[in-house]
Amino acid sequence: MVSKTSPQKSQSVAELLQPIDVKTHPLVKITAVLCMGISTIFFPSLWLGASFLIIIIIVSLPCHLIKGIFKLFCGFGLPLVIMLVFIQGGFADGNKTLIVNILGFNLWLEGTLHALRITSAILVFLTSFYIFNSTTPPIIFVRSLQQIGVPQKVNYLILASLNVVPQMQRKMAIIKQAQAARGLSTRGNIIKRCKAFIPLLGPVVMSSLTDSLERGITLETRGFGLKGVRVTHLRKLPFTRRDFWLLLGTITFFIITIVLTVLWNEVWR
């Protein structure tokens, strides 16, 4: 006897196993980011944050974002761990259990665990939002907010805020190339780079102001903010069954974490 699997069941399983940047709805992703970050902040144990970081690393593999994740770990996480462990592990109130004494410096267990928990919460927020920002175009995220009834002006403010840094970086790169073509040296030691950076500020600021003015004129010509007008969209953003189960599982896990946190605090009060 050869068992046959229905095509519908095989398709649903394949959809669940697809990478997060292929099928997952933006609202599901931002909900997961907020739930993981908030639960890591309030949960009194370090293991939840460490588990989330392992999950984030696994999720980043099919999205090809593991290089950026490790850059965040090494460039931001490692210095933060060293600083907080030195401050909290050595000088925080409530330190009772001595770990080691290094040349007269006492490192305590309670402060070290607290420092690692703070660092894990910050890294969970940072790395999960990095994955969300890398796998979700801002316009798609704003489109998902429109689906749940967020006003257009609020959506525009969010979209403009998310685009301001990439636009400034692109403008800076273009103006830097133009200045280099005119003979301005942008390489050398830190003093030469600062001197070369100052002439770039004027064109970048002026071009940003010009872009803002042109964007405002474009919005007016397209009838932005008109009331009583049915808004249409070229691209549909469906909320699939996979998104529903992922959202339900995320919210359920968040509620369980909050309940366990309350019970933990009641027991160890």
UniProtKB/TrEMBL annotation:
It is found in: Membrane. The keyword Transmembrane helix applies. It is a multi-pass membrane protein. It comes from the Bacteria. Keywords: Membrane, Transmembrane, Transmembrane helix. The chain crosses the membrane at residues 30-58, 70-91, 111-132, 244-264. InterPro entries: ABC/ECF_trnsptr_transmembrane. Coiled coil: none annotated. This is Energy-coupling factor transporter transmembrane component T. GO terms for cellular component: plasma membrane. CDD domains: EcfT (cd16914). The keyword Transmembrane helix applies.
